[in-house]
């Protein structure tokens, strides 16, 4: 996670613009311009390619070129060239930053272009350019275990491209929610194979990977974020690598061909990733009309899907995760538009639930969210059958902290999906019952910290104190009972 980033332009709901993040501009899609493939793999990656074929269960159609660049040359390649940034680019980036601020996800006056470029230089180790069909690696050799792990990850993308055509896959996404879902599928698949590769390394190599180890090629990544880079960009950039593996793991549990089937018939909304029950239903979101603008409001950009993930993140960072989870579990569809009013960037979004009571819950949650902001910044009202949110940027608003963002994404969403997978795998539980148990456990104030110790710190239940063991087993039994899930089931 964080050592390689995807090479495409994608909006994660409205939560983050990665069109300016994750790859040099030459690698962000467009018509294929493949470099002629070599007859054989570069000897430095051949063994890893063999491992990836075996682990993924697919064969490469042919080798691809691999470019090994020095740290300095790689930084130049992924950094944004200021000469290529137009006045229009800067204006659009400023507008989008204002919209993110209006949604209380970042602070005021963020330079998204500069922040994204700085983040790439700090975090990217390698990428697969599926326009040119070339892999670009930061480092001149593979002595660094971190680089080898990145090569394994990117080689999965090569397999995906050769078998499922990544360009066509991303082009099939009609909304940003669908693009989010496809990205989670693509990165989740690659990350699971990456994890298999890590487990195949020696104990010393694994220690080096997880602790940083030596770095003979001066591949310096994972440093503190450069000044001016919002923590939201780093956390959100990692979302496909965090939630994607749990989603793909669940696909594996549901059937041996489910992952390949998902590439052939991809998920349609980000709700499919956040909620396996919705993912199995594989239904299109409810059609929501574009919100109307009033006199004096000037539209910015085009209408798009706001997305269940963006809704969750907004709510979880300003209210509480239980409210946020309940709201997105009933998410049915939405539509948003950005606009400018009195020199401020604003967002108006209309939401609907699967059922009227779900719409009521979304309305209540958004009301709590608006109430947490400076007075007059946001408003929520019922318009026909939809809940409409309007929010404009306010310089008095501060960005959510790293702790709050990480708890929302890593601690809650990742743990929730992991628990669902474990209940499906261990108890052969139906998805709906597995979700019911997981939803209760991750928001339980006494139980959740214990579960985090088990899953994030590697503790076994037997290693816990007697009181913690009692809390864990009693809590597990309580939620199994509430959700009508027996161990035998």
Topology of this structure?
Elements (H helix, E strand, L loop, with lengths): L10 E2 L3 E2 L28 H11 L9 E4 L1 H8 L8 H16 L9 H12 L2 E4 L4 E5 L6 H20 L1 H6 L4 H25 L2 H9 L19 H24 L3 H7 L6 H4 L1 H6 L16 E7 L3 H11 L2 H9 L1 E11 L2 E10 L2 H16 L6 E6 L2 E7 L9 H26 L3 H13 L3 H10 L9 H17 L7
Parallel strand pairs: 3-5
Antiparallel strand pairs: 1-2, 4-5, 6-7, 7-8, 8-10, 9-10
Helix pairs in contact: 1-5, 5-7, 7-9, 9-16, 13-14, 14-15, 16-17, 17-19
Kindly describe this structure.
This protein has 489 residues and is α+β, with helices and mostly antiparallel strands. The chain has 19 helices and ten strands. It has helices spanning 46-56, 71-78, 87-102, 112-123, 145-164, 166-171, 176-200, 203-211, 231-254, 258-264, 271-274, 276-281, 308-318, 321-329, 356-371, 402-427, 431-443, 447-456, 466-482; strands spanning 11-12, 16-17, 66-69, 126-129, 134-138, 298-304, 331-341, 344-353, 378-383, 386-392. The strands form three sheets. It has a five-stranded antiparallel sheet. It is globular. Residues 1-28 and 214-222 have low confidence and may be disordered.
């Amino acid at each position: 996670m964080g050592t390689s980033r995807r090479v495409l332009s994608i909006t994660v709901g409205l939560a983050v613009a990665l069109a300016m993040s994750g790859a040099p501009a030459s690698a962000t899609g467009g018509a294929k311009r493949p470099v002629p493939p070599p007859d054989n793999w570069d000897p430095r990656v051949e063994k890893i390619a063999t491992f990836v074929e075996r682990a993924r269960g697919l064969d490469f159609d042919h080798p691809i070129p691999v470019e090994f660049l020095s740290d300095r040359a790689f930084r130049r390649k992924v950094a944004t060239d200021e000469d290529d940034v137009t006045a229009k680019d800067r204006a659009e980036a400023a507008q989008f930053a204002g919209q993110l601020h209006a949604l209380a996800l970042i602070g005021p006056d963020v330079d998204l272009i500069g922040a994204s470029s700085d983040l790439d230089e700090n975090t990217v180790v390698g990428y697969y350019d599926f326009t040119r069909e070339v892999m670009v690696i930061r480092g001149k050799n593979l002595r660094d275990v971190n680089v080898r792990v990145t090569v394994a990850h990117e080689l999965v993308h090569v397999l995906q491209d050769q078998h499922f055509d990544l360009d066509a896959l991303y082009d099939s996404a009609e909304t940003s929610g669908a693009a989010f879902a496809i990205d989670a599928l693509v990165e989740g698949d690659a990350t699971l194979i990456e994890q298999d590769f890590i487990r195949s390394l020696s104990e010393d190599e694994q220690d080096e990977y997880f602790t940083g180890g030596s770095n003979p090629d001066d591949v310096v990544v994972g440093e503190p974020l450069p000044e001016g880079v919002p923590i939201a960009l780093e956390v959100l950039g990692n979302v496909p690598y965090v939630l994607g593996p749990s989603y793909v793991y669940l696909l594996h549990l549901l059937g041996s061909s489910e992952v390949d089937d998902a590439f052939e018939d991809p998920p349609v909304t980000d709700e499919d990733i956040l909620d396996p029950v919705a993912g199995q239903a594989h239904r299109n979101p409810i059609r929501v009309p574009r919100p109307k603008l009033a006199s004096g409001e000037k539209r910015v950009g085009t209408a798009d899907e706001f997305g269940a993930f963006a809704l969750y993140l907004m709510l979880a960072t300003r209210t509480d995760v239980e409210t946020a989870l309940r709201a997105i579990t009933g998410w049915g569809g939405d539509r948003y538009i950005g606009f400018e009013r009195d020199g401020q960037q604003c967002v108006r979004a209309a939401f609907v639930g699967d059922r009227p009571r779900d719409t009521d819950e979304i309305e209540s949650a958004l009301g709590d969210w608006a109430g947490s902001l400076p007075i007059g910044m946001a408003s929520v009202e019922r318009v026909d059958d939809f809940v409409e949110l309007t929010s404009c940027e306010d310089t008095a608003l501060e960005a959510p902290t790293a702790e709050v963002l990480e708890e929302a994404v890593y601690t809650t969403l990742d743990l929730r999906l992991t628990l669902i997978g474990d209940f499906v795998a261990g108890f052969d539980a139906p998805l709906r019952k597995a979700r019911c148990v997981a939803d209760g456990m991750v928001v339980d104030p006494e139980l959740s910290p214990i579960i985090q110790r088990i899953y994030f710190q590697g503790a076994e239940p037997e290693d816990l104190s007697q009181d913690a063991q009692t809390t864990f087993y009693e809590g597990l039994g309580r939620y199994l009972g509430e959700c009508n899930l027996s161990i035998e089931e």
